[in-house]
Design a protein that fits this description.
The chain has about 350 residues and is α/β, with parallel strands linked by helices.
Length: about 350
């Protein structure tokens, strides 16, 4: 069996998983027992809640004609999020790198929800040109945008680079979504102002952001993949996505914009992959591990909850797990680090996009 940490396709190695469930600094015994028991938190939902359950709740927000844009909705958590939100009557815009997979997901959604509106557009988040083209194509449709779910992600065991010569994991998981959000933000603010419905941006992050130490979080090193390690690069990109949330929330509040932004950790998600690590871990450890794994629908629940629940109306700059507000690492909460990262990223994009235009 494989393990997806946040729906992006990363298969966690047994040694890392062993570290997660056995290190007392990773999670308290109380939190672990609550997770295993599936006990509901203040929201009324917990680790066992599914995407369909949280969107059936009376406190969910269902105005007519909501439009949600989801990246990476061609498999796993992203596809389940798209399916459930379409079932609830939302217009779905899927940003997909693989259009064939995107068409298959759209067909499955329409088979279940024949009256759903599902729009498929191509995007490669590692490419600035592709993100720009996608935004131009979407804006040309003259549709509103109420919810933006930055879900897509990659994990690369080996050092790879984007066409802009940026380490691929960081380029895709963080910078691509930063640019996408930047280019669609004014449309979201305008939509919220015209409709009176709060816009919501959701960054799909991961609990492994807490593995990153301050000394190992250097913008230039992450760009060039210095001393590359796949797991570390992945964790750094997920930390960056939370810091993006923190600084964007501050800026949106400063502008008095009717748009919120939050981060979510979907949980450790079960996939249909054959148990490839058999022999590397004991049967007893695998049994314990399997009890901590979520189904794909359970993994999509927190994203759907943060997208629609009225309980978190106006809540911004927060981190959610199991459909409840949770604590992220101290580094992820560092406002000065968030502002510095935002400034560095903005400067990089300004320079690279200006060069490309000349």
């Amino acid at each position: 069996m494989g393990i997806n940490f946040d729906g992006s396709g990363w298969k966690l190695k047994s040694i890392k998983y062993r570290k997660l469930i056995m290190d007392p600094h990773r999670q308290s015994m109380k939190a672990t027992l609550r997770y295993l028991a599936g006990l509901a938190g203040p929201s009324g939902f917990g680790s066992n809640s599914t995407a369909e359950q949280v969107t059936q709740d009376p406190s969910s927000l269902f105005p007519s004609n909501l439009t949600v844009l989801i990246t990476g909705a061609t498999s796993g958590i992203g596809a389940e999020t798209a399916r459930v939100l379409a079932k609830r009557g939302l217009r779905i815009v899927i940003g997909a790198r693989d259009l064939k997979k995107g068409r298959e997901v759209r067909e499955k959604i329409l088979k279940e929800s024949p009256y759903a509106e599902v729009i498929l557009l191509e995007i490669d988040l590692s490419s600035f040109a592709s993100v720009q083209r996608f935004c131009s194509e979407f804006l040309a449709l003259e549709l509103p945008i109420n919810i933006l779910i930055n879900n897509a992600g990659v994990y690369s065991q080996n050092l790879e680079f984007s066409e802009e010569k940026i380490e691929l994991t960081f380029a895709t998981n963080y910078i691509g979504h930063f640019l996408l959000t930047k280019m669609l933000l004014e449309k979201m603010i305008d939509t919220a102002k015209k409709t009176g419905i709060q816009g919501r941006i959701i960054n799909v992050s991961s609990v492994i952001h807490s593995w990153v130490k301050r000394s190992g979080f250097c913008f230039n090193d992450m760009l060039c993949g210095k001393n590359y390690n796949g797991t570390r690069a992945y964790a750094q990109s997920k930390l960056a996505s939370i810091l993006h949330v923190k600084e964007m929330a501050r800026q949106l509040k400063e502008r008095n914009a009717k748009v919120t932004i939050n981060a979510v950790h979907p949980g450790i998600v079960k996939t249909g992959i054959i148990r490839a690590h058999k022999g590397l871990i004991t049967d007893s450890l695998f049994f314990i591990a399997s009890k901590l794994l979520k189904s794909i629908s359970q993994g999509a629940s927190t994203t759907c909850y943060v997208a629609l629940s009225q309980q978190i109306e106006g809540v911004s700059g927060k981190y959610f797990t199991d459909c409840n507000e949770s604590n992220c690492s101290s580094l992820a909460n560092d406002e000065s680090e968030a502002k510095k990262l935002w400034n560095d990223t903005h400067a990089l994009l300004h320079k690279r996009l200006r060069q490309a235009a000349n």
